[in-house]
Structure formats: structure tokens, C-alpha cells
């Protein structure tokens, strides 16, 4: 047989019952969700900063990072909405390499999906408890989000997933903002088609059930740059790109037009130190054009305790990425304050 059944995993409801949100966490998430919703509906001008590791690979390091972020949040919360990136699934272009904590709770050991779904839920719960911040994750596997759907305040659909029907339809049933990234080709039309799909109602099969969704009016786009047929990165954060996106949005009957700019990935050609410069350009474009200020709701930054990245091995540097290179904490903190001064 081409597929071997290893073990039956617990139902999401059973895992949630075993590792529940406290009443205080539920109230905190409701308030955070309310504030974030107001940003994406245009009722609030607070600027969103989704920031954190490329991949959440170590619970202690991630929770330390988020706790540091919470201290900064207290100083900027009147101008910024800080949403920690706690990405527990890592897409791989060829299928090889570390696939995130969901697959490998211990990066140097074999995959263990049962331990993985427990580990990611416990990590998210700990992060909320210690920081008071609810987080973002990537919806890499639509059916797996049920293990975290009561915890997350923001989700992203990645460049390799945005054309997938199941991702689009699942996004249409979410009650939090979901960012649809442009595909790796950089095609804006594909990205906007995914938003159209996510904002409408659908009937489909989900986790073995016949479901109908209500449509997600908070679905929006994420610009992350593209790659041409020669493998060259083509950024899409420049003023001309943003005005083109605005023109395309204006031709569509979409609710709550919004965009987040991912300042790493193909926008930086994975040159992580370029992220502060790109953020500055995005902020300048917003300040120059009032319509862009309404459209561009925030930025996405890859950052960890230590700058750069490292291979998986026996001598790991604590708080340093094992996937894409990230901005270090000192530079991240300075960047957040700079953003706050500009907003």
C-alpha cells in the first residue's frame, strides 16, 4: 500500500477539553479579536505588526520572545497592534526539511504528529498566559486548524496554498482576519480571486462533515513578492505595486479592502536585514497617499531572539531560526518603535 495508517489522532474537541483556554484567556482573546476586527473594517487606524519567528521551533524561546514583545506592546498599543507570529507548520518547496513543530516537536528527532498537535496547543496557551497576546499562525493544513481555531487571532494562507480550493473554502468559514498571500509567481489576480472565494459562502466537505460557511468579510491580501521563471525575486512592496493593487481592489466588489506587506521572503530576497528598509518604504508610501494609508493595514516581519539562521544540529543557538533567517531582537525592538513613531 502507498499509505500506512500509523495511529488515530484525537478529535479537536477532545484536545481542547484536555488543554482548554481559561475564562480569562477567552475574555482576552475576545477583546483582542474585537480590536483587530475594527482595524480591518476601517473603524480603527491602529497599524498591525505581525512579527515573530519564521517557524516556532522551541517553546521556551518562542514564549520568551512573545513576553519581550508584550513589554514593547505596553508602550505602543495606542498606535500599533502587535500580533506575534507563532507559526507551527512550515511549508517546504520540495517536501524536504523541517516541517514545523506540528510534525517535529523536537526538530532533531523523527516526526511525531500526536506529540506535535499537543505541543503546538500547549505552546500557544503558554504564550497567551505569559504575554497576554493572542497570536497568528499559518493555515498550511486546513483540517488541522481545528486544533487551534479557538486560540488564534489571525491566520495566513501561504503562497503555495492560496490557489488550493480547500484553503479558500476553509478561510470562508473563519471569524478572524485571514491573509491570502500572493502566489510564488507574484500574480495579483490569483491572490484577489482567493479573497473573493474566502469572502463568499460555500458548501463543502470538512473533516468528514457536510458544512456551509457564511463567508469571511475580513479576508484580505498579503504581498510577499514573487519569483519569475528564471528564479529571480520580484518585490511587490514598491509604491507602483501598491497603487496597482489599489486599482485592482477598486474594480472588485469586496468587503473591507485591506493589505498586509510581508517584508521578508521574496520582497527581501530573504536578505533579512533589508526588512527595516522595506518597512520604511511602505510607511512612506502610506504617508504620501491617503488611499494607500486606508488600504495598507500593516506589515509582517520575520524576527527571533537571535539574528540569522542555523542548521539543525546538536549545538543549537537558543532563539535562532532553523528555517529562514530572521531579524534579531535588538533590531526588531528598534524597528517596532520606529514604526510607532511613524503611525
Structure notes:
The protein has eleven helices and 14 strands. Helix 5 links the parallel strand 4 and strand 5. It is globular. The model has no long low-confidence stretch (mean pLDDT 96).
Summed up, the helix count is: 11
Average residue pLDDT: 96
Strand order of the largest sheet: 2-1-12-11-8-5-4-3
Gyration radius (Cα, Å) is: 19 Å
Shape: globular
**Cα distance spanning the termini:** 57 Å
Parts with pLDDT < 50 across at least 5 consecutive residues: none
Main beta-sheet strand count, sense and barrel state: 8 strands, parallel
**What is the number of beta strands?**
14
Oligomer: single chain
Q: In which range does the helix fraction lie?
A: 25-40%
| Sheet/helix structural class | alpha/beta
Amino acid at each position: 500500500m502507498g499509505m500506512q495508517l500509523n495511529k488515530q489522532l484525537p478529535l479537536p474537541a477532545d484536545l481542547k477539553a484536555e488543554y482548554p483556554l481559561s475564562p480569562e484567556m477567552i475574555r482576552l482573546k475576545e477583546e483582542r479579536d474585537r480590536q483587530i476586527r475594527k482595524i480591518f473594517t476601517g473603524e480603527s487606524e491602529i497599524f498591525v505588526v505581525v512579527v515573530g519567528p519564521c517557524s516556532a521551533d522551541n517553546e521556551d524561546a518562542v514564549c520568551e520572545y512573545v513576553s519581550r514583545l508584550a513589554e514593547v506592546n505596553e508602550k505602543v498599543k495606542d498606535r500599533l497592534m502587535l500580533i506575534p507570529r507563532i507559526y507551527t507548520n512550515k511549508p517546504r518547496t520540495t517536501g524536504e526539511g523541517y516541517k514545523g513543530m506540528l510534525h517535529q516537536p523536537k526538530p532533531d528527532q523523527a516526526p511525531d504528529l500526536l506529540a506535535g498537535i499537543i505541543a503546538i496547543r500547549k505552546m500557544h496557551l503558554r504564550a497567551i498566559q505569559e504575554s497576554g497576546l493572542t497570536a497568528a499562525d499559518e493555515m498550511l493544513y486546513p483540517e488541522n486548524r481545528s486544533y487551534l481555531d479557538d486560540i488564534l487571532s489571525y491566520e495566513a494562507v501561504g503562497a503555495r496554498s492560496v490557489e488550493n480550493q480547500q484553503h479558500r473554502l476553509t478561510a470562508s468559514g473563519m471569524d478572524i482576519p485571514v491573509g491570502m498571500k500572493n502566489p510564488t509567481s507574484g500574480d495579483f489576480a490569483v491572490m484577489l480571486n482567493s479573497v473573493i472565494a474566502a469572502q463568499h459562502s460555500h458548501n463543502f466537505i470538512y473533516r468528514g462533515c457536510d458544512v456551509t460557511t457564511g463567508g469571511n468579510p475580513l479576508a484580505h491580501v498579503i504581498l510577499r513578492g514573487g519569483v519569475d521563471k528564471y528564479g529571480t525575486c520580484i518585490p511587490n512592496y514598491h509604491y507602483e505595486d501598491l497603487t496597482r493593487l489599489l486599482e485592482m481592489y477598486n474594480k472588485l466588489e469586496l468587503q473591507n479592502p485591506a493589505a498586509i506587506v510581508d517584508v521578508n521572503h521574496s520582497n527581501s530576497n530573504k536578505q533579512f536585514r533589508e526588512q527595516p528598509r522595506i518597512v520604511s518604504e511602505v510607511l512612506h508610501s502610506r504617508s504620501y497617499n491617503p488611499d494607500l494609508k486606508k488600504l495598507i493595514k500593516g506589515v509582517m516581519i520575520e524576527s527571533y531572539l537571535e539574528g540569522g539562521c542555523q542548521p539543525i544540529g546538536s549545538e543549537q543557538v537558543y532563539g535562532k531560526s532553523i528555517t529562514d533567517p530572521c531579524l534579531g531582537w535588538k533590531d526588531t525592538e528598534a524597528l517596532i518603535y520606529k514604526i510607532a513613531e511613524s503611525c
